[in-house]
């Protein structure tokens, strides 16, 4: 089953008439344990379904689902980055990389970690910022 078919199936579960109103979207978001104010839902629907007159069609719904995937991907990257970074420096240092790799069962020297970091260190400061980590993971 492809992504389009999955989104269409979910969309049809939300509403059988081919469109989702802001109040319907708010209700279904509430069912999955999240809470959005009607004003927030209206902004989402207006931005994604502007050609539908305040109603979210399948294309807008797909865009919404894709943006959620991006948010989840970024959240996962931030969590992973947090596991590697040293406390308080908001970057991955050779020592913090060595510590994390050791915890994963990979024994590396600090010098080897320096080489690994230098491959993705775009600004040459010897550490990885979140942006550099993101480029490394998604690149």
TrEMBL record:
It comes from the Eukaryota. Keywords: Calcium, Metal-binding, Repeat. SUPFAM superfamilies: EF-hand. One of its GO terms (molecular function) is calcium ion binding. InterPro entries: EF-hand-dom_pair (IPR011992), EF_Hand_1_Ca_BS (IPR018247), EF_hand_dom (IPR002048), EF_hand_pair_protein_CML-like (IPR039647). PROSITE patterns: EF_HAND_1, EF_HAND_2. Residues 15-35, 108-139 form the EF-hand domain. Potential calcium sensor that binds calcium in vitro. This is EF-hand domain-containing protein.
